[in-house]
Amino acid sequence: MTEVRIAGAAITAFGKIPGRTLRSLAEEAVRDALADAALSPQDVQMVFFGNAAEGLISGQEMVRGQSALRHTGLLGRPVVNVENACASATTAFRLACMAVESGAADVALAVGAEKLTHADKARPLAAIGTAIDLSEPPTLGGRTTADQVPAGPKSYFMDVYAAMAMEYSRESGATEADFADVAVKNGRHGALNPKAQYRNGVTREEVLASRVISAPLRLLMCSPVGDGAAAIVVCSEAFTRRHGGGEVRVRACELRSGTDRVTGESPGVTLAAQAAYEGAGLGPEDVHVAEVHDGAAPAELIVYEQLGLCGRGEGPKLLASGDTALGGRIPVNTGGGLLSRGHPIGATGCAQLVELVDQLRGRSGDRQVPGARVALAENAGGYLDNDSAAIGVTLLSV
């Protein structure tokens, strides 16, 4: 198969941006990604548009990509709309890579965009809560309403993450202070990212003093609602020889759906990571920088273990060592993660990849990881009873 290269990558600022539309966000990301690749819309042969919730937020269904990209000069090419929960943009990226790998296109574009802020604050939270099997909702580890603290409108997924956190604490000994320290680390990284939603940073004391959302999770341990877009231009190696650029190689991009796994079976993230490592001929020890899906702070510690960055039950120890902070052995979420950069859900997968492309190209400024040559992204979305519904793991290198 044809080797896939990344020729351009761009991201908008993330945040609660009342004056922006999904269209304006997507247009900015596409324009800047094409400029980064020194390409025009006419060079693009296929487009994959990732979005999760626009139908439930604004009512725009079925042709979201064609609508959002209508004035970009891309119409006339195939536009494939991709909806796969929080992994929508990673799925769009994988499909773009497949188009190039197969020879169906020399240049393909993956876009992830989401407009979540709304005058009715309950609407985006309700939309996010549909990313489960509504006919067989998760049991949340037997949690009852007595286990939770009422806190007004909230995402159902914070109850999911709270159940995961309690189970993980029993297995690993992780404490609320450990979860708070994830938010502190990612806040410190986000403060260095001009595109991040939150750039002030937080202390452990501030995190632990923030209000309870779903015990043991507190407000500052939870990713925020926001708006944003990101885009990636992928192309064939042959195209880069003719055109130039494309220094970043796509070594692997694996998608998996979660399963109704039983005790002892590996979660979907581990299975996707194992397939990605095998496909790339790399291992976790080769990774220099990573972006992982910290929808809530405990998830980052859990994913450390699922990706093989440390042993089982060693997530808190890895965090405390400083290895996953800037300056450490394998910095994680250098862009601030979902906790600080923000989580416009349909954009997150491409946002992670933009951060890693910037790291591999040495253009991350104050948050640059020196000598980064191999990068990993883990992006997961939706939930079944005990596993994420959609999972993507990507490996890039220079």
UniProtKB/TrEMBL annotation:
Swiss-Prot/TrEMBL keywords: Lipid transport, Lipid-binding, Transferase, Transport
Residue ranges constituting the Thiolase C-terminal domain according to the UniProt record: 268-391
GO biological process per UniProt: lipid transport
Every Thiolase N-terminal domain range: 4-237
Transmembrane spans: none
SUPFAM superfamilies for the chain: Thiolase-like
InterPro entries: Thiolase, Thiolase-like, Thiolase_C_2, Thiolase_CS, Thiolase_N
CDD domains: SCP-x_thiolase
GO MF annotation: an example: acyltransferase activity, transferring groups other than amino-acyl groups
Enzyme category, top tier: transferase
Gene3D superfamilies reported for this sequence: 3.40.47.10
Pfam families per UniProt: Thiolase_C_1, Thiolase_N
EC number(s) per entry: 2.3.1.176
PANTHER family the record matches: ACETYL-COA C-ACETYLTRANSFERASE (PTHR42870), NON-SPECIFIC LIPID-TRANSFER PROTEIN-LIKE 2 (PTHR42870:SF1)
Protein name listed in UniProt: propanoyl-CoA C-acyltransferase
Organism from which the protein derives: Geodermatophilus amargosae
Source lineage: Bacteria, Bacillati, Actinomycetota, Actinomycetes, Geodermatophilales
